[in-house]
Amino acid sequence: MKTKRETIEARVPKGEMRIVPIVWFGEGDRAVKARVVLDKPGSSAKVLCLFFAKKGKFDLHTEIVHDAPNTFSRTLIKGVLDGEAAADYEGSVTINKGAKNADADLNEHAILLSSKARANAIPRLEVLENDVKAGHGATVGKVSDEEIFYLETRGLPREEAKKLIVRGFLDSFVNEFPKEEAENIRAQLPRL
Question: In this structure, is residue 126 part of a structural domain?
Fold first, then answer.
């Protein structure tokens, strides 16, 4: 099966907020490159990505460029992989000279539900200006046995406990998406 490739480019007007939503539910292999340039004072952007898959490969690259003062960005990626699904994420934030008071954060969090699922995350910051806020982080892990045990002691079977933890992990993030996109995601979540 051929990989579906997609490129997203955005420039944000002065003083405006742009949300860039990306969702993958394992429908074949997919590669997405998203680039957002904040070159107007006071512009801001959120790149939001949610993924859940039992098969297939997801390759995501994000790039945020702060090129003006008083800009703001958040890159938030959350996903769950089961079966033999794989996800590779590489994200970068660049704060160029002249982008004073820029505020940037990049985070990716993935949960693995099987021993064959895999996720890689490479977050990067390049800060070329003083007087800015910038942070990044990434976690890849499995649902802890303690969490499952706790729910089992409350009467939930093991598989239901896993599903509840996964839904809680993803559902809390869905509210960040634009309303129509959030409704589409919620319609897909019962399939988990």
Answer: yes
22 occurs within a structural domain:
yes
* CA 61 – CA 89 distance, rounded (Å): 6
Helices 145-153/158-174 angle, 10° precision? 110
Phi, psi of 73 (to 5 degrees): -145, 145
Question: How would you write the pLDDT of the chain (192 residues) with one tens digit per residue?
Answer: 688 999 999 999 998 999 999 999 987 899 999 999 999 999 999 999 999 999 999 999 999 999 999 999 999 999 999 999 999 999 999 999 999 999 999 999 999 999 999 999 999 999 999 999 999 999 999 988 898 899 999 999 988 888 889 888 988 899 999 999 999 998 887 666
Residue pair 73/96 in contact by the 8 Å Cβ criterion:
no
- Burial readout 71-93 (b: 16 or more C-beta within 10 A, e: otherwise): bbbbbbbbbbbbeebbbebbbbb
Domain assignment of residue 56, given as a range = 4-143
**Rounded-to-integer distance, Cα 94 and Cα 92, Å:** 7
Angstrom CA distances, 78 to 99, 105, 128, 131, 135, stand at 28, 14, 28, 29, 17
Please name every residue paired with 71 in a beta bridge, in sequence order, or none if there are none: none
The tally of domains found in the chain comes to 1
